Amino acid sequence: MFLLMSGLSAYLRIFLVLALAPAVILMVYVYRLDPLDKEPVNLLWSLILSGVCAGLIAGVENIMYGLNYGTGVFLTRALMAIPAHMGFAVLFGIFYGEAKYLSAQGRRGWSAACVVVGYALSVFLHGLYDSAAMVSSSASDSLFFLAVVVIYVVNFVVARQAAKHDKRFAY
User: Fold this and answer.
1) pLDDT in tens, 68-80
2) CA 80, 55, 131 angle in degrees (round to 5)?
3) DSSP state string for 74-102
4) How far from the centroid of its chain's Cα atoms is residue 130's Cα?
């Protein structure tokens, strides 16, 4: 990794660290909360790499934001957009896991409801994030910051509750 970064400017290195650190922290947090059946590390790495490949398109978006609004937008997006999007995926994953569990119990209706609720909650929070980011008024910065705080709180509370729920099944 450091060999790849050797040709990068100090500014770009700082940006990459700031862009990745919140997502890595959230991934480690969620992974450590799992008391039962942690996913194999190889699977997680393949999913991360798949996300990175898909994220090359979220990368073009970041570059476009930087070109349109100046380089100052990079820090804001690194601290807010990247971890927020990961959080939306984590929320949906938690509900999907619950749906899988309910399906195994033969509770297909509740399973389907979990998928719908997880998807709807992720879409709602993403919409809240986008709406707050696009509002142009004197209070837009405060609204955006509040929306991001709400998203983070929901992500961490739901992840912690899901982990507590899983602990009931530990041997």
Assistant:
1) 777 677 677 767 7
2) 40
3) HHHIIIIIHHHHHHHHHHHHHHHHHHHHH
4) 14
Neighbours of 148 (CB within 10 A): 21
Please check whether residue 38 is in contact with residue 31, taking contact to mean a CB–CB distance below 8 angstroms: yes
- Which of 159, 151, 162 is closest to 101 using CA atoms? 162
Q: Tell whether the model's pLDDT for residue 171 goes beyond 50.
A: no
CA–CA distance, 95 with 110 (Å, rounded to integer): 11
Q: Which two tokens stand for residue 96?
A: 């999907």
- Cβ atoms 97, 33 nearer than 8 A: no
Separation CA 113–CA 99 (nearest Å):
8
Alpha-carbon Rg for the chain, nearest whole angstrom, is 18
7-17 tens-digit pLDDT: 667 777 776 77
Distance from CA of residue 140 to its chain's centroid?
Answer: 22
- The DSSP code for 36 is S
